[in-house]
Please model this.
Amino acid sequence: MPLSRRGSGSVALPGGQHLAMHTRTQDEEPLPHATKSPYVVCFPESSADYGLQPMIPTFVFGWPSGDESGDYLAIDLGGTNLRVCLVTLQGKGKFEVTQSKYRLSEEQKQDDGQKLFDFCAESLKTFIDTNSGEGGLIQLTPGQKLPLGFTFSYPCKQDRIDHGVLIRWTKGFGAPNTEGEDVAAMFQKSLDKFELPVILSALINDTTGTLIASHYVNPSTRIACIFGTGCNAAYMEHIKDIPKIKDLGLPGNADMAINCEWGAFDSFEHEHLPRSKYDVIIDEASNKPGEQAFEKLISGRYLGEIMRLVICELIDDGILFLGQNTYKVEVPNALDTALLSLMESDPTDELLMIIGIMSHFFALETTLAERQFLRAIARLIGRRAARLSACGIGALVGKMGYLEDGCAVGCDGSLYNKYPGFAGRIHEGLIDIYGEKAMNIRTHHAEDGSGVGSAIIAAMTKARKDAGLYVNL
Model:
């Protein structure tokens, strides 16, 4: 049966109009379907390959001491920006950061992979040159090289800390000649091309960096999550419980950070996540159909498009914007997730902010009932994303036995930091899973993982290798 944009249910709103819905409520199940299923099956303990739930060993051994110090460079290739940082670690959980940001164009995301890394190296050179010289923050003696942490926030298979084979691009990237290649070696080639005075010490994921940076400042942190353009989590696992690295002969009582790459959960089979028809449309139109199933339900890259598809269906059904030209809102990806955030947070009785959004971006006039309608849609989409996010946190809490003693969860990303009510809705989901004991799980704004975390990991790696521990890893 071909996909339809017609709703599978409706709810009456003020003005007599109806909102198409595809959801479940607590009245239908003791534990909502959207919270229950992903939580139960999120992270199988015995997975020993890099399949649909990667659970990638990072070769970041244990927690930082909090006493790490010195100057370190960090470069972060994120989903939206390239960021270059000079991080001065001061010990006792303190640090200073100097940084520059460079916007990534859609063309760069799809261009040849080596050209992308050349851009990264050239930006790093610009940063070093700008901050060097008399009175500059970077003062190098002849022959001196600064340790560099490279934050590469895409799933990689690693067999040592300064190596990583890209498994697949996410967050809309599609640069050819990169998947299946060692991205650290590709970046090193670009660093050599520009003759930069750096040593590539560590290749890390931003979520792993967030875990380490948050623990550096708040030692009760045990889990870190990113809820932004993409989504992910990291935690510290006992080496004896990591089948992927059992052949390395590492001591079982040591710990290693795991990059979950949970955006890939339930990819291809789609057996567990409660997908709506709008989710199916987005998946099939994406540059990676079938992949990153969890991410497509909860990350900031997709929430605006979910709402746009709902709006288009309601236009087709003759419910919204009667008699108006709606061509602007019918353009794919025309509705940014940031606009949903503004709609939800509109404090006025007349919803004046929504008037401005629909008029400015889409040349559409709205009635009060339509504006109430749009805010209700935004709330449903935002609430579902937050509650599904709680599933992943709940799975890690349960797996590691953190519920009784409690722990902190460092969270970062535009959804957690800026989307109204997102953090509170995560806690609602955790309470649905664990009841009152969920109060032992505290989320907090994470420290800068892709900058500070990368630098701390570079410092930890240098200290580990200087001490002769696992020097080949």
About this structure: Residues 1-38, 44-51 have pLDDT under 50 and may be disordered. The radius of gyration is 23 Å. The first helix runs from residue 33 to 41.
